[in-house]
């Protein structure tokens, strides 16, 4: 079979029998050529005379005749979004593409059947020319008939493959897409992973919840290769990407984790796997066969008994047999000691820099305001506050006292506690003293002009306080730790930047923090670092402490609390961290069907054994990646991967959250490719690349990403599409069509980007985020979102049917979309840039900023006023929605970027437009060419 | 002249000790893999032996150099160089946070060292016996 080929828009391939080759015909001009066309004729180039995008009804059959399959992107997406196999009728009822309002008369995609409508649509009216609002004509929602019928044809094809799954010999159709010359459809970045096509009776209950939501756990492949040699041959990574302690967000449609109320925990005697929807009941239901190791286990006596009602219960209604994510309440054998209370020790830098920046005052106020939201359900929560400058300041907070007493310890080398009691106190009993201290803290150090920060000694003191119980140390530091244990030096030599030595700046400078992290981890203490710096604070070294204790690093560069935006951002994020319903004394263990082995762990934790990681405090929404290998051939039709996280809730209950995922096995390499999840692969490559940048160099880290992508696609080309020789195209399986875009964005991300301009602190912080953000936040952090606001559809920024603010359609990340008179928003979850074109009409500037003209507008960090006009309210709604769009505590700053001023800010915003060429980094098109050459070179 | 005999007797003993150290390292690494020991204890235990092992080996090499045993010296010099390089790069100690990621490398290194010490053990033994049968080694 010849390689299925996707031609750029407007081109048609015709077989020329005389020369035995395809001739490519431009359907608009009738011009023909022998070379494979790579440039689609984008209507945006000449909007009035834009070519009729190849008429779907005519073009597709023609291609079928010529032996080539021509699958328009949008259509494949429709199939995919509809689940392809079982939900085909639904998919045809809700075609995805037509419901998207078009972006600014520049349809980058060949949307079958839409051709006529596009032609009728006038070019997007510009802001001022359309007086009654900023709306756009709506599309007819009805897809034309020929498109429908064509879709049905394809559905039938797919169904032949899918429906016949029972006999296990059928595979998914791998749809090949050619990327060169195509603009990626960025809306697909949110698509769910390809489904795992399990045999029909894999799950004992036919529950719709028998697979975990991808936000809990997803795998790079949704079909498990039967042998390691097949996996090696495919060059695809095999790794679990998971965030087991995920937050519960109603707005994301989360369902609460079902809790198994009775303490009947059925586990396999041999491999200790928890019972789950994929076990088999045998011997009349008296025994169950473990799906991991095959051992037959007895069903516990009370398994079918309702303890509350005291009567027999329906086994098939049990939550652990219906849900892939469940929580068990752990009995005492799962405890080393009685559940400990939540403990928070604050180590606050009170040196001159910290007080002057307003950090101390803001932090103290936030703690004060959060005293009621810190988890304290059973009134056992304890806190301690230690202030650090050139000496250590402890505060005695006796129960019932109204004032705190300060105790100063100048000895920094041999840290001791000045007092055995009253330093770590119950938050309720000592409430008055705590409140009095927090309201005075900043003033107490207002006049001390001490320069120097003994952070390391302060951390040791806090460790002595909380080490007996375990808990969280929250360190807030506004200067480089310069005294006592763990003192650091400014080592950010600008000469190193951009060289191979730069990676030394990404590694720890002092072994103190790593050694201390190990000590903390073994005593169930976790450390969060809040760093505020006007200058270098060695994030690389300090972030080692959160990394190995399951904490998190937060950086506020150039923090100044007198700027309201800075104060709000920090206090919002800090407040959310304090209110977070943390888990305590956590361990994660992953079990899998025999033959699968865990080979490497990535994330913030301490690896305690080959299958166990320790998290002294389990934070919400942190991402972990676990690489898998096959040590034996897999014989079963499907495998099960089960992650168990054992933790103590902050209200003193020991719980086990079990996440079970099943996937079919396959010996077909095409099936592996068709089941690959681009988001999980990007997540895995991110972890690998960050590790590489530390152990080797940033250059090697970027090559790792590109080479991995290149080898994957070359194997795909040679083994799956069986095309030989060099090709002018880059063939990818449909489900991975956005992986090259993510990889391109990743190598241009500030954490890995080439260049001598990036401060090491910002790089290290970006790397800390890259390795911890859950996939929902990681994808936009790598590939930001870009909206055009001045001409957004009428419903954007208003409340939709589901009660949520409707966001405008996301644009491709290229500056071609920026218009001189426009208003744009670029956001990556950490920062938002409101881009104002320099020809923005006064009315737009007036409506949004309440300023008469563009020239009066000031760029930089800003808060947008909420004005009494619908456009301002919609823009504000979009910004507010963006801030709460994703899991995590982050509140992005808003920067107003003027398109012709402040070059630094401007180029920062432009650096997020990853499809563009930037300095000497390649554009997306060039990146594809690089990858294509790698693919061709290795075939 | 008994110097050579005594030197190789000493070398044989040293090689035996180093050999056992490596066996100990390898056993400990397998224990870690089987979850009989946690990485913190492992690193604390092994790190006590890292420098002594390197120093012992360097001392033996120095002895060969001073006594003019060029072949034996050249045999050992590369390993001394490798060890010195590791110490200079400050990565000679085992790091509990990274141990699982680097375990296969550590095991490979220990096996290579084991093989090397084994070969040297027999070489020193051979040289010792050679010195013995030449009747010179105890001086009569
Ligand atoms: Zn089992």
Automatic annotation (TrEMBL), chain A:
Where it mainly occurs, coarsely classed, is cytoplasm
GO CC, sorted alphabetically, is: COPII vesicle coat; endoplasmic reticulum exit site; endoplasmic reticulum membrane; Golgi membrane
Q: Which InterPro entries match?
A: ADF-H/Gelsolin-like_dom_sf, Beta-sandwich_Sec23_24, Gelsolin-like_dom, Gelsolin-like_dom_sf, Sec23/24_helical_dom, Sec23/24_helical_dom_sf, Sec23/24_trunk_dom, SEC23_SEC24_subfamily
Molecular function terms from GO: SNARE binding; zinc ion binding
Q: Name one GO biological process term.
A: COPII-coated vesicle cargo loading
Superkingdom is Eukaryota
Keyword set, alphabetical order: Cytoplasm, Endoplasmic reticulum, ER-Golgi transport, Golgi apparatus, Membrane, Protein transport, Transport
Keyword match Iron: no
Keyword Cell cycle present in the record's keywords: the answer is no
Q: Where is the WW domain?
A: 5-39
Q: Where is this region: Disordered?
A: 32-68, 83-144
Instruction: Name the family the entry cites.
Output: Belongs to the SEC23/SEC24 family. SEC24 subfamily.
User: What is the protein named?
Assistant: WW domain-containing protein
TrEMBL record, chain B:
- Which keywords belong to this entry? Membrane, Transmembrane, Transmembrane helix
> Which InterPro entries does the annotation name?
Cornichon (IPR003377), Cornichon_conserved (IPR033466)
GO terms for biological process, alphabetical: vesicle-mediated transport
Pfam families attached here?
Answer: Cornichon
Give compartment(s): Membrane
* Record GO cellular component, one term: membrane
Q: Does the keyword Transcription regulation apply?
A: no
The membrane topology of this protein is: Multi-pass membrane protein
Q: Where are the transmembrane segments?
A: 7-29, 54-80, 114-133
Q: Does the keyword Transmembrane helix apply?
A: yes
Q: Which family does it belong to?
A: Belongs to the cornichon family.
Name of the molecule in the record: Cornichon
Q: What is the lineage of its organism?
A: Eukaryota, Fungi, Dikarya, Basidiomycota, Agaricomycotina
